[in-house]
Amino acid sequence: MPLRSVTIYQGTIKEVVNLSLQVPEFKNSYPEEEYITRLKSKKSLVLVASYNGKPAGFKVGYDKDEDGSFYSWMGAVIPSFRKLGVAQKLADYQENWAIKNGYDRIRLKTRNYLKPMLIFALQNDFNIINVISYPRVRDNRIVLEKELGFHL
After folding, report:
1. Contact, 55 vs 78, CB < 8 A?
2. Angle at the Cα of 83 (from 18 to 106), degrees rounded to 5?
3. What angle do CA 116, 121, 127 make, to 5 degrees?
4. Fewest CB within a 10 Å sphere: which of 24, 57, 102, 152?
5. Is residue 91 within 8 Å of 53, Cβ to Cβ?
C-alpha cells in the first residue's frame, strides 16, 4: 500500500499509552503519569500515526537536556503496521518539527537487543555517541544523535 495511507497528527498522551500496550517490545509500558511527569513544563511533541484510518504507531519527544537537542524518548509501530513506512513518516515529521522549533539535533536512546530500532536510526543518519553498559550486554543502552539541517 502507498505511503499516502499514513497520516501523522499531534495526539494525546492517552492515545500513546493505549498504543504502547499493543507493542510487544514494551513488556512494562509506561503509565500515563510517567508521560505527564516527563513532559510537564517542557517543550514536547506527541505524535500519533494512523494507517488507512487505524491507529498504527506513535512518537513522543521533549526538550530533555535544554542544550539545543530534542530528545526522541518513546516511539513504536504496532507489529501489524510495520514495514509500511509508518516509522519513517513519524521520524520525518518529528525532524521537521524540531528544525522549525530551533533544535540543531535529535538524540535518542535504544537498547542493544532492539536491533530494528538501532538499524532504523543508523539508516536515518544518526551516529552512536555513547554506550551505557549493563551487566548483560544485550541490555546496554545505545545513545544516538543526528545533526539537523545539514542535508545539502
Report:
1. yes
2. 70
3. 135
4. 152
5. no
Query: Smallest Cα–Cα separation from 44: which of 122, 97, 104?
Result: 97
Query: For 100-122, how does the pLDDT look when each residue is reduced to its tens digit (9 = 90+)?
Result: 999 999 999 999 999 999 999 99
State the amino acid at position 62 in one-letter form: Y
Q: What confidence tens digit (pLDDT) does each residue in 6-47 have? A: 999 999 999 999 999 999 998 889 999 999 999 999 999 999
* Domain count along the chain: 1
Short-list 77, 107, 103, CA closest to 90 = 77
> How much is the pTM?
0.93
Q: Is residue 131 part of a domain?
A: no
**Domain limits for position 74:** 3-107
C-alpha cell at 64: 530533555
Of 75, 83, 79, 73, which is closest to residue 59 (Cα–Cα)? Answer: 75
Is residue 32 situated within a structural domain? yes
